[in-house]
Structures are given as structure tokens and as C-alpha cells.
Amino acid sequence: MVLNSDPGLFTRLILYIGLAVFYTYGLIWSLVKRGSVKTTSDVLRVFYYDFLRLRREQVLIEKLTENELVTVSVNPCPILRLSLLLRVDTKYSCKLISETVCKAVLKRFNTKLVFKRDYNYIRPYSSGCRERIYFENSSTQTMEFYEKKKNSEQLTQSKSEVVQRSLV
């Protein structure tokens, strides 16, 4: 299935309706929790388990430190379903809908929180969706973690390709 990264007007209209609904939910929900996040453990609990309503087994924790949380979500995702139904690339729809709302909600929890999604590791191209949330005033925040992960995944893929070629 080919996914469209430049949807037509009607499809964009549907996506913007999805954005409006999710944003409204996020805005109302975050009014109650405003200023409630002080640690990355709070982010995990308040954002993933409470706001997004994910179960613990649907959030794989790759890194959890005092200043940074890196997760891979493997939940049944309504934005993924909508994207597949509309044949829209999730790199487009998730940036529009999910990332917009997630950034706004996290800023309401704590103005120092930064949300980044790894668009090289997103469904349906990967087994889950990797996200990184950190406090912007923490010591030098870099993408080293992503680079190590990416290099590791490329190495694994290369080894797999060599094994497949040797079998032919």
C-alpha cells in the first residue's frame, strides 16, 4: 500500500477535524493537570498513562533518566488507523495531529518540556512510534541516543541482508 504524503483537500479537511477534536480534548484535559509534571516519571504517568490512556505494556521505555524519557508506543493508535484508512503517510498525519497536540499538552504540564518524535521510527514503517521528551534546561540535550539506535538498527538490517544474500 502506498501512503500519500501530500493528501488532497478533502483528506486534509478530515485530518484537521481530527486535529480539532484531539486538541479540544487535550486542552480541556490539561486544564486539570496544569503544572503537575515535575519529573520524567511524572511525564510517563500523567502523559502516557493518564492523558493518552495507554496501558503499561503499550509503552516500551527505552530510556528514563532525571531529564529525559524515550519511549516506543505500540498501542492500537487511532491516528494510525485513520491514516491507513485515508492512505495518508503517518509522517504527515502524526506531525499534523499528534505532534501538535502532544507539544501543547506537555507545555501546559510544564513549560520546560520538549517533545520530539523520531520519524525514522514510526508505524507502519516500524513496530512502534519512538518519542523523546526532555526538560529543555537540562544539560546538553543531543540526538546521540537516536543516532546510536539508528546505527544499531542499520547494522542489524545490513547483517540480515548479508545472511539473506548468502542463502540465495
List the helices and strands and how they pair.
Elements: H1 9-33, H2 40-51, E1 59-64, E2 68-73, H3 78-86, H4 90-109, E3 113-117, E4 129-135, H5 144-167
Antiparallel strand pairs: 1-2, 2-4, 3-4
What does this structure look like?
- This protein has about 170 residues and is α+β, with helices and mostly antiparallel strands.
- Strands 1-2-4-3 form a four-stranded antiparallel β-sheet, with helices on one face.
- The C terminus is likely disordered.
- It starts with 8 loop residues before the first helix and ends with a helix.
- The longest helix has 25 residues.
- The chain has five helices and four strands, in the order ααββααββα.
- The radius of gyration is 17 Å and the shape is globular.
- It has one domain: Muramoyl-pentapeptide Carboxypeptidase, domain 2 (2-Layer Sandwich), CATH 3.30.1380.
Mean pLDDT: 85
Structural class: alpha+beta
Low-confidence stretches: 162-168
Biggest sheet layout? 4 strands, antiparallel
Order of helices and strands: HHEEHHEEH
Give a concise summary.
Helix content is 54%, strand content 14%. By secondary structure, it is α+β, with helices and mostly antiparallel strands. It has one domain: Muramoyl-pentapeptide Carboxypeptidase, domain 2, CATH 3.30.1380.
